[in-house]
Amino acid sequence: MKIVTASEMREIDRATNERFGVSSLTLMENAGTAVAEFVVLQHPTAKRITAICGKGNNGGDGFVAARKLHERGRQVAVLLLGDRAQLRGDAAEMLTKLPVPPLLVLSSADLNAEAARSAIWGADVLLDAILGTGFRPPVTGLYAEAIARMNSSSVPIIAVDIPSGADADVMGEQTGAVARADAIVTFTAPRPAHIFGLLSQGPTVVAPIGSPDDAIASSLQLNLITAQEVAPLIGPRIPAANKGNFGHVLVLGGSLGKAGAAAMAGMAALRVGAGLSTIATAKSVLPTVAGFHPELMTEPLEETDAGTISVRAREYGRVDRLIEGKTVLAIGPGISRDPETAEFVRSVVKDHKTPAVLDADGLNAFEDLAAELNGTGRTLVITPHPGEMARLIGSTAVAVQRDRIDIARRFAEEHELVVVLKGHRTLIAHPDGTVWVNTTGNPGMATGGTGDILTGMTAGLIAQNPNRAMEAVIAAVHLHGLAGNVARENMGEHSLVATDLLKALPEAFRRVREAALGKWVRIAG
Fold this sequence. Notes:
Strand content: 5-15%
Distance between the termini: 18 Å
Strand order of the largest sheet: 8-17-16-15-14-13-12-9-10-11
Number of strands: 18
Mean pLDDT: 96
CATH class of the largest domain: Alpha Beta
CATH topology of the largest domain: UDP-N-acetylmuramoyl-L-alanine:D-glutamate ligase
Largest sheet: 10 strands, mixed
Helix content: 40-55%
Number of helices: 20
Structural class: alpha/beta
Low-confidence stretches: none
């Protein structure tokens, strides 16, 4: 799903009307209907709903939502912040269809009058339909006062399109007066603030209202990962399938004290459906890896005095023979920063064109040597956190966080590889400049080993879909975060550990398949 700017959203609406013959009144009717349906689903016991409406199209959406809720048997009140005569176009038309007379609020005195106070404080749910995504801050006057009044209430607030006062194109913190939102219902496609702005304390959903896909374009080259992109890769298997149909992952990793990282990566590859998973590791830690799970196969490699993989593991073609016939390599989990091991990593990446996922100290092996990382003519995926990304580009984690999208995009383009820049709103950057944004996941995943799980999942999904590698990466990132959300429900954020994600994956798969059948896209919450 494309992420669009506010101006692009206006153009989408215009094209929908002029090129595809869908009237703006129909779009408004569909938008308001979607809001009403969400209220009924989210707050099924709410009886009194108040819509606080501005004079523009956002207010028009609110009028429709109020009418639809009235038809559903709810007690509806509408506060109109302005004079009826000030309304134009579709909003004026929808005002005439209201089943209840609006309460006109023309001044601070009107807002503080008993009728307005009762409508706000006595409601079970408030609809914020004052300002939409076309607004540019700051908000002032009566609208600012109304926002402050809403924010001081304890009533759940559902924002129509976007919380009033927010700038839809801002990717960071908002400034000025912005309405509190416990949920947001937006339409057609999300704007940057919906994805990056942390505007809601609860869910944000994107509802289709009639704009065809051909009308939706974005200059941002930003896309939101949804269940619709992931579900095709985890569909039913053919009855005659065997393990050879689903690829063989080879994990090169592990060292003394870090054997679990390689083991988790190998098991994650199996949990997402890879046919086979082999871990090649320093021979002294092989028993630890082998004891992690009986389904994992293992291969011992020559090691350094420190218990890490030695460059001597490549002597006599041993590693080369191991790589032969493998579908995907996962290089780096627990492999250590030993200089000799780093040399081993670089030599394998240089000499083999087998699809590869590079993570952790496998990435650190290229510190000050990022020029050697090149995915031309092959599938090469790197999965850095901000600190690892900073080491690759000779910067700082703070600087990376400040400019995450452009840094990930530039590195992917310059090095002809896929960048998975981990963190809140993990980014997947493709060499063609396209960036995908993931919204699953939670702070409980900030614990050792979750990155190793992602590495294994990514390799495992590529192994099953070698000709759809980018889609496999997108699916892995989304499922990884969703498994973290499932684990949080069971364990809480503080008690969550990496292997909880492995147990949560079956439920994550189920939720993706279910969500792909739904009409709304859920961004977060």
